[in-house]
Amino acid sequence: MGDKDIKEEFNVEEASRRAYEALMDRLRSLLAGDRTVRDRPVLPSVAEIPSDHPRFEVVMGTNTNQVTFLFRRQDLYLEAYQRGGSETWYEFREKNQKEHAVKGSEFLPFSGSYSGTHGLEENAANRDRSGRVMQGSFDRSRIPLGRYALRDAVNTLATSDAQNERARSLIVIIEMISESLRFEQIEIYILTNWYTGAIPTTELVVLENN
């Protein structure tokens, strides 16, 4: 992209709980501004972020695949992903968005928001024979988080063009990177359930919505 100065790599396949925690710590340190709250780094203001480096990358690999994820520094928002060996970025398309934020990208058929008809949860849902959404079939309270969920998400995004599979996998990426960076409670929950996997609690989903 040429517009970021932070890039971290993470091998999901063999990752221990400690390795995931170290990744979160490194990212927080790299992204932090000059302020801390309760000894934890706080994101810099928009004015403090270099205009020519507004993003950061996390490259995730498994035994067979690699995917690069592009995040905004100002709010940790996931903007796009790129499959290993490809130059194409797949970018979320927000409601009424016409211009690409990521140069040379292709729009995904949904936004990066969780809710709404154009959002991730509805697009991740199973559908009946008539194509109608089966309510609650793949909202966040049904999608587990953990090491194997992260591995499967990377493999799916590297290989699948199915709309619902991509949306489900992107929910996992957002929760395990963006939300985990934003909220200590979410990181602790993921670390506690790293090897077994667990669906987010109602309290964590409410936290994410704030």
From TrEMBL:
<comment type="similarity">
    <text>Belongs to the ribosome-inactivating protein family.</text>
</comment>
<dbReference type="Pfam" id="PF00161">
    <property type="entry name" value="RIP"/>
</dbReference>
<dbReference type="GO" id="GO:0030598">
    <property type="term" value="F:rRNA N-glycosylase activity"/>
</dbReference>
<dbReference type="InterPro" id="IPR001574">
    <property type="entry name" value="Ribosome_inactivat_prot"/>
</dbReference>
<dbReference type="GO" id="GO:0006952">
    <property type="term" value="P:defense response"/>
</dbReference>
<dbReference type="InterPro" id="IPR036041">
    <property type="entry name" value="Ribosome-inact_prot_sf"/>
</dbReference>
<dbReference type="GO" id="GO:0017148">
    <property type="term" value="P:negative regulation of translation"/>
</dbReference>
<keyword id="KW-0611">Plant defense</keyword>
<dbReference type="InterPro" id="IPR017989">
    <property type="entry name" value="Ribosome_inactivat_1/2"/>
</dbReference>
<dbReference type="InterPro" id="IPR016138">
    <property type="entry name" value="Ribosome_inactivat_prot_sub1"/>
</dbReference>
<keyword id="KW-0652">Protein synthesis inhibitor</keyword>
<dbReference type="GO" id="GO:0090729">
    <property type="term" value="F:toxin activity"/>
</dbReference>
<keyword id="KW-0378">Hydrolase</keyword>
<protein>
    <recommendedName>
        <fullName>rRNA N-glycosylase</fullName>
        <ecNumber>3.2.2.22</ecNumber>
    </recommendedName>
</protein>
<keyword id="KW-0800">Toxin</keyword>
